[in-house]
Amino acid sequence: MASQALTTALDGFRIEVPSWGFANTGTRFGKFAQAAAATSIEEKFADAGQVHALTGASPTVALHVLWDMPNGVADVPKIRELEQRYGVKAGSINPNLFQAQEYKFGSMSNPDPAIRRHALDHLLESIEIAKALGSRDISIWDADGSNYPGTQSIKRRIEWLEEILVTAHEATSEDQRLLIEYKPFEPAFYHTDIADWGMALHLARKAGPRAKVLVDTGHHALGTNIEQIVAWLLHVDALGGFHFNDRKYADDDLTIGSIDPYQVFRIFHEILSAPAAATEGVAYMIDQSHNLKGKMEAMVQSVVTAQELFARAALVDRATLATLQDNCALVEAEECFRDAFWTDVRPAVKAWREDRGLPASPLLSLKESGYVEKAAAARGAKNAGSVSSYA
Amino acid sequence: MASQALTTALDGFRIEVPSWGFANTGTRFGKFAQAAAATSIEEKFADAGQVHALTGASPTVALHVLWDMPNGVADVPKIRELEQRYGVKAGSINPNLFQAQEYKFGSMSNPDPAIRRHALDHLLESIEIAKALGSRDISIWDADGSNYPGTQSIKRRIEWLEEILVTAHEATSEDQRLLIEYKPFEPAFYHTDIADWGMALHLARKAGPRAKVLVDTGHHALGTNIEQIVAWLLHVDALGGFHFNDRKYADDDLTIGSIDPYQVFRIFHEILSAPAAATEGVAYMIDQSHNLKGKMEAMVQSVVTAQELFARAALVDRATLATLQDNCALVEAEECFRDAFWTDVRPAVKAWREDRGLPASPLLSLKESGYVEKAAAARGAKNAGSVSSYA
Amino acid sequence: MASQALTTALDGFRIEVPSWGFANTGTRFGKFAQAAAATSIEEKFADAGQVHALTGASPTVALHVLWDMPNGVADVPKIRELEQRYGVKAGSINPNLFQAQEYKFGSMSNPDPAIRRHALDHLLESIEIAKALGSRDISIWDADGSNYPGTQSIKRRIEWLEEILVTAHEATSEDQRLLIEYKPFEPAFYHTDIADWGMALHLARKAGPRAKVLVDTGHHALGTNIEQIVAWLLHVDALGGFHFNDRKYADDDLTIGSIDPYQVFRIFHEILSAPAAATEGVAYMIDQSHNLKGKMEAMVQSVVTAQELFARAALVDRATLATLQDNCALVEAEECFRDAFWTDVRPAVKAWREDRGLPASPLLSLKESGYVEKAAAARGAKNAGSVSSYA
Amino acid sequence: MASQALTTALDGFRIEVPSWGFANTGTRFGKFAQAAAATSIEEKFADAGQVHALTGASPTVALHVLWDMPNGVADVPKIRELEQRYGVKAGSINPNLFQAQEYKFGSMSNPDPAIRRHALDHLLESIEIAKALGSRDISIWDADGSNYPGTQSIKRRIEWLEEILVTAHEATSEDQRLLIEYKPFEPAFYHTDIADWGMALHLARKAGPRAKVLVDTGHHALGTNIEQIVAWLLHVDALGGFHFNDRKYADDDLTIGSIDPYQVFRIFHEILSAPAAATEGVAYMIDQSHNLKGKMEAMVQSVVTAQELFARAALVDRATLATLQDNCALVEAEECFRDAFWTDVRPAVKAWREDRGLPASPLLSLKESGYVEKAAAARGAKNAGSVSSYA
Predict the structure, then answer these.
(1) How far apart are CA D98 and CA A330, in angstroms?
(2) Residue from A29, A112, A387 to probe the interface with B (highest B Cβ count within 10 Å)
(3) Cβ(A122)–Cβ(A97) below 8 Å
(4) Could you confirm whether the keyword Metal-binding appears in this record (chains A, B, C, D) (predicted)?
(5) Domain A13-295 falls under CATH 3.60.21.10
(6) Which residues are registered as beta bridge partners of D216?
(7) Rama region for A33: left / alpha / beta (φ>0; ψ in -120 to 50; rest)
(8) How many Cα atoms occupy the beta-carbon half-sphere of D333 within 13 Å?
(9) Which site among B20, B24, B25, B29 would you substitute to test the A interface, given the most A Cβ atoms closer than 10 Å to its Cβ?
(10) Chain B residue closest to D291 (CA)?
(11) Which of C59, D75, D316, D319 lies deepest, with the highest CB count within 10 Å?
(12) CB contact, 8 Å: C301 with chain A?
């Protein structure tokens, strides 16, 4: 059952974990603190290293500049050391353009040129950090927008955004990429400056050849056909990568495949249908917010789920499918497609893990390792600070 | 132009403001602090009093138990004094069933009976506070739910909820009401225990005759016909009141009528179409989160907008409309209906204000009063604590 | 692998096929005629009989009164004969309250009492037909509503609807049921008189004890948690049955499980979680519109997919799951739940079929039988009438 | 009150009516025939002429090739004569790529090259018709897509589409334009080949400089900020025009502004905010389906509503607004913006009509003219053919 297609697929599949996925997060209504949550960049690296040790599939960790490297480039040596110590490397670099009080009415498209300059400076610093760390990708999430009709000029904000992204792109080196994310709403509730893939694509092209589009699977209106957008971005050679998560309503940031696993399978199918050359640079990244699940359990579960869904997609008999599609043999095509989805790949993935010297069941091994309990003991007091109690 | 219908409508229109609407709020991505935001229950009363002084239409302020009365019933004398000093009364009492760490997996429908007991105790305390303050309404927002399929038993949680609400209802006095709110998602992202009006209605009936349904206009799936739900709740004598706000996407908590003013008009039309007896107890309350707009400006604007939209709805010629509806004269009925919506009631509302000794233009008077600047000077340092800076 | 749970589940699983599912259908933009589509009630029975012969799981066929029994009760002997000849029985009876020109502005809630009387008469005739055929269920889909705000009185239409349903219920015999369907929009585009489960539940209760709610899985706003509604309807003993289909956008009437198979699994899980007594009357029915897929292929595929997803749901270890839910062991509960979903039940279902003397692969057997080709030859000329050509 | 801005705006505002808007239409559940509906191209021209005579704002009528000119270019002289007789000119030309049986699995992106060639031929014929009629715009609505995951290759269909559009563009003359429409779903229910503005923009650019994007206001996922898309299309010089209509749920094809008038105002504001040069070619067209409203009444109402909302948008004090936007004076900016929306422009529009020798109240004049009754008398028998009766 561990077919060659599946083995090749699993050998080539890597998914980046986010440093912020190990720290406490919440909703606007509050945060439920976990004793074992990471409270420092070192703890985040330790956790990410453990996930990779268990799964063999997450060798890099995404960093959020303000949260993980508050001293900017000066923090690079520390990160280098953590990479060595914990066996995972720094991955994509994420500027923070939404947290500072200055950004109340926008960062890159704020009407105030001084604030736009702040935003640009932070972007440029992030690019420098990425260079120093050898990180290829700078992932730009622009949270800007407006909350009420008429309160901002949509058009002028486009122009400001273009200007900054062009300048940022000029600062990148040949082997770097700017990934431009889009999102329809939240935290802005009337208009978001980069609301959909069409806007992100325009900006990426305006910025330059090393700018690509970043697809966060939770950033679409309900009903949107995400795999079609993926196919289009591949078609126009502009797919930079993914922030994977799942949702039922809005940007719920749930575990990948937890609500609609068939959709993830379809996304992977589009990628596997494209020429290898078109997809080799595509970055798979997790961007989730586990408010209730245990951080470590959820991250291991996420990586495993991604692997299994990728393996299912790898099993699609694409040659047969193409013929059935050409013949408009709808039911047969659908059955061919779903045969792969319904195949229980778990035994084969387990076999692959054992072949590669990895734990057969990463979640079980995590549990048996006592890692979470130890982390809770070591970090509990630090996390307790954010814990209030009703009693 | 200041027709009798309009005068009567405005004389009878009252809308409650929320204490939390004067304090800093934000999204899960952060909070932009305002220097003039209220930092204490006294400041909230001062602000609410000012809104009422300017509009004459917001004589009560909703209180959030944990935030406004941390000592419970012991805080009642203090509230009494603030009512006197600032000329607004305590309105609905809002228990807090979402903030304590114990509520991570639910409050009233937590699988742990001890936690459910905590939630019940808080409800009972809230009812006691309401009695002591002479507040008719206890507004219950149940934030409980689950984030992932299979992780909780939907059915058993219904039973737990029923049990608690029955007990809480027993504790209310004859002149009190339990208002049960519903919401489809957030902060729970897979299922919310009270997700729609049908669930809230069942629970209200199970609880007892003094339990009614609370409609938050932002708590519906996109596309939902909210005025139809209002008509149904009136039909079954179960409409308790409203939390007004507007939204374009999810529970965006924007200013009433800022995105879809025609919808608010239609809601008011349903209420004005019902027999007066059926609607006299309906509570109009604002529940908004002005993350970017100035708190005071936004609240005055909200009250004024609500007045104007209510005035428009009061102008509908309902007798003529009924005949046109009976005759299925669609275009004529629609034109009759919209004639009221398109009427510019602002001059008439201004005239009504002057007749009642109120400022003709509340927003302008607020600006000229310098109230916000004085508040900022007095409160700025306290609010600065939550302000971080990029520079 | 063919566990006892699975065998019991499959032995007990029956899903009704709709007569109209074998005839040509389309969208408002046109109809693509199929040569093999059924053009008469006899051909529909022949097709339904063939589906049942292949799957062993669809022993009844839903009838649409106007389309299948234009002479009303007088057509009963003919139906009886077809039941005998084709080995499937008449199932639910579906009145038609949307097609007649009189119903332009509504049927049961038309402002014109004469038209409401027409609608009632048709309901009463449908009940008589059902009695004569021994059909338990009359499925009422009320397509009424309005297209523009203000053009109809939402409230008065509720009253008219109540009145008719009470009268209809009185006409039912003890062993009959009225199933009341809800739908948020289409063909009405502003308000639909029975828009959601809360409205349907109220009307069912008003009508009487033999009225229940019918859930069409395509009749919800995007994002709605359908399995939660199922759990609630079971909780209040009001779940009458299902019209199964799938959709990505609106009421797309696609094949069950073709867009979101996990959702169907979750619905079945809620049913299997309820006490057997609460669910024994629940009717499973298909209501799909295969505009492009071959009618027979699609129907066989639908029944097989329903069986397989029901089998998956039957494998959930509900005792273990309940404990994990009680302990709020989220990841473990989810893994327990999904273990059943990911199990490849196809070999076991195939084994069950062989045990029961059924074709191991119904779709393959359909193909090998040449049934569709024969039908096309016999019916092609009749279907060609509706075929126009560009050339 | 009839300010210069408003007069200029009204003098320059023209909106095209669709020939198909005068004929009977319906939903997939049936069609309610109107006695006065147009049954021939002559009657459609007569109706359009009457709408223009009443409003002075709809001098052109959009034609649907297959329905209105079944003989193609040979029908041009007849159309010329109708233009003369009824005082309205042929406007945009609409190919029909969805009705022929050959198009079951697609037209321009059908896997069968012969069918793609049919589609291209029809496009080329439509371009020739447009040339012969002196029509600038060919409006291409591509209804193609697929209903089930895996049944078609999304990617290859993009390539086929590009190929055809490039060829069609080559056939256009310098003063012609191809308008490419997008739509997320219906009649295709899994993927639509041109699903959003990003896809339409790519195809327009691929096709050539005379291809632009056509925005149908009903063709977006719920929640989409349409005015932002308009601003973007203006920014990239690719806005070709609009198909105006309103909706609450899907592509409901309701009267413009009947559900959300504020949204139409915001769209017009974006256009009026752009440089005149950028918007002078933008085509305003109505595309509605009045299944229940009287055809003529609804069309007159649509044109009048569009005029009034355009007039409101013309009143926005854009210089003041820009300053307030720059200052992030949110509440003041919003009040400035909405001051125009809330202004009752009806008296001023009436005055403008009288100045221009038009009926002060087009709807009233239509009623008094007896036009509809006369049309019903003349056309009733022809329309009765499609009327069936329940009785």
Answers:
(1) 19
(2) A29
(3) yes
(4) yes
(5) no
(6) D243
(7) beta
(8) 22
(9) B29
(10) B330
(11) D316
(12) yes
Single-letter code of the amino acid located at A349:
V
Q: What are the chain A neighbours of B149 within 8 Å (beta carbons)?
A: 258-259
- Judged by DSSP in three states, A353 sits in helix
Which chain D positions have a beta carbon within 8 Å of B258's beta carbon?
334
By mean pLDDT, which of A2-6, A115-119, A280-284, B339-343 is the weakest? A2-6
Q: Which residues of B touch C199 (CB under 8 A)?
A: 198, 232
Q: Which chains touch C (3 or more CB pairs under 8 A)?
A: A, B, D
Chain B: give the shortest CA distance to residue D118, in Å.
39
Residue in the block written with tokens 């009508």: C207
> Do the Cβ atoms of B149 and A189 come within 8 Å?
no
Candidates C195, C198, C325; nearest CB to B225: C195
What's the pLDDT tens digit per position in A265-289? 999 999 999 998 889 899 999 999 9
pLDDT of amino acid D2: 52
How many CB pairs below 8 A link A and B? 131
Residue to test with chain D: of A152, A155, A230, most D Cβ within 10 A: A155
* Mean pLDDT, chain C, integer: 96
Determine whether the interchain pair D187/C291 forms a contact, defined as Cβ–Cβ distance below 8 Å: yes
Pick the CATH number of C4-382 from 1.20.120.450, 3.40.50.720, 3.20.20.150, 2.60.20.10: 3.20.20.150
Show residues of chain B in contact with D308, CB under 8 Å: 342
Is pTM, for the whole model, over 0.90? Answer: yes
In angstroms, the CA A42 to CA B20 distance is 38
Among the partner-chain residues D103, D149, D248, the one whose CB lies closest to the CB of C189 is D248
The answer to whether D6 and D348 have CB atoms below 8 angstroms apart is yes
- Does any CB of chain D come closer than 8 Å to the CB of residue B1? no
pLDDT in tens, chain B (391 residues): 458 989 999 999 999 999 999 999 999 999 999 999 999 999 999 999 999 999 999 999 999 999 999 999 999 999 999 999 999 999 999 999 999 999 999 999 999 999 999 999 999 999 999 999 999 999 999 999 999 999 999 999 999 999 999 999 999 999 999 999 999 999 999 999 999 999 999 999 999 999 999 999 999 999 999 999 999 999 999 999 999 999 999 999 999 999 999 999 999 999 999 998 889 899 999 999 999 999 999 999 999 999 999 999 999 999 999 999 999 999 999 999 999 999 999 999 999 999 999 999 999 999 999 999 999 999 999 998 655 443 3
> Can you tell me the distance from the alpha carbon of B184 to that of C80, in angstroms, rounded to the nearest whole number?
47
Based on the number of CB atoms within 10 Å of its own CB, is B156 exposed (0-12), middle (13-18) or buried (19 or more)? middle
Q: Which CATH superfamily is domain D4-384 in?
A: Divalent-metal-dependent TIM barrel enzymes (3.20.20.150)
Q: Look up residue C41 and give its two tokens.
A: 């009630």
Q: Which of C223, C292, C343 lies nearest to residue A330, judging by beta carbons?
A: C292
Percent of chain B clearing pLDDT 90 (strictly above): 95
The answer to whether residue A111 scores a pLDDT higher than 90 is yes
Q: Is A378 exposed, middle or buried (0-12, 13-18, 19+ CB in 10 A)?
A: middle
Average pLDDT, chain D: 96
Q: Which residue of C141, C189, C291 is the best one to mutate when testing the D interface, meaning the one whose CB has the most D CBs within 10 A? A: C189
- Kindly list the domain boundaries of chain A, sorted by start residue: 13-295
